[in-house]
Amino acid sequence: MRQENSKILSIVIPVFNEINFLNKLFDQIKLHFNKDNIEIIVVDDGSTDGSSKVLYELKEKKNYKYSFKLIRLDINSGKGKAIQTGIKNSKGEYILLQDADLELDTKDAKEMFDMITTNKDIKCIFGSRYLSGKLKKNNYFFNNLVGKINSLIFNIFFSQSLSDVHCGLKILHRSVIDKIKLSVNDFGIEIDLASQIVRNNFFIYEFGVSYFFRSKAQGKKITWIDGLKSFYYLIKARFFDNSASTNLSILYSSIYMAFVGSHFGMGLGNTLFIIIFFVLGSILGIHFKILTSTVIFLFIFIGSLFGKGNGTTLAVILFFLLGIFVAKNLKKNFQNSKFNNYF
What we know:
The chain has helices at residues 22-33, 51-61, 79-88, 106-117, 141-158, 174-177, 189-199, 224-239, 244-261, 268-287, 290-303, 310-334; strands at residues 9-15, 38-45, 67-73, 94-97, 124-128, 136-137, 170-173, 205-208, 211-212. By secondary structure, the protein is of the alpha/beta class. Helix 2 links the parallel strand 2 (38-45) and strand 3 (67-73). Helix 5 (141-158) packs parallel to helix 8 (224-239).
């Protein structure tokens, strides 16, 4: 819930060694967000390059209308920890997450804020560097590729259609913040945040934003190691951070689909089918609980009774798709009932 003396908007800005960008950043913030019903929450994540001094000086100038909160973490704890700290100290009806490195334009942040406040049905907007018809500068192929692969995997795991899970510019309504509990302290915070929003049945809108990539020499913090770690966070968010009933469904579906796969191919081909069907089963287990999974398995079994050779394979595929259709309708009908954990 919002605290007393609440604001319409809280802008949370994690900062770690960004001394070269802070003055320009706050010039932009004053240009677009200089109102007394807005608060800026800067979390200095253990900076050692003089950023702390610059932030203090910016706060002491008092040549602005917004509320300025400056929080210092003595030890560098990661972007995720800084964001969590900022959110916990926020009062706004809306929370805007803005990076300090100027890769993302505060003008786009203002457009997102105007959009979400004029449409009360929208509770969450993610910036996207890939939807934009705006200016873009990015000559780092590997980082770009990993970001797109991660977004694709996220979409498969969570039945979404997002183009840019990792974009640091996001705005959320307080009702979204009150439903989630962030726990990741590093750059995996983006996956943690997105997965929890989806789990709580909020729709994520996307808005194309400008992007000006900076090099490691200019202070870029994220590395290829963070890109690899993001795969771990995707697996963790999807296959481990679940309710007991969902984890049981994943195990159940994985086993029966591996059993189905064992009836295809021979030798190494048979092993490959088992692995593929096991993975497919784990994804099915995410979306369907025990009873609906059983319905799918029953349809597969019925399909296996028809035809011979390739005919049987075709029948299994057709009945599998039919089983998914029936399971989806059952799930929809029981979604808001006391039997939801079984469907």
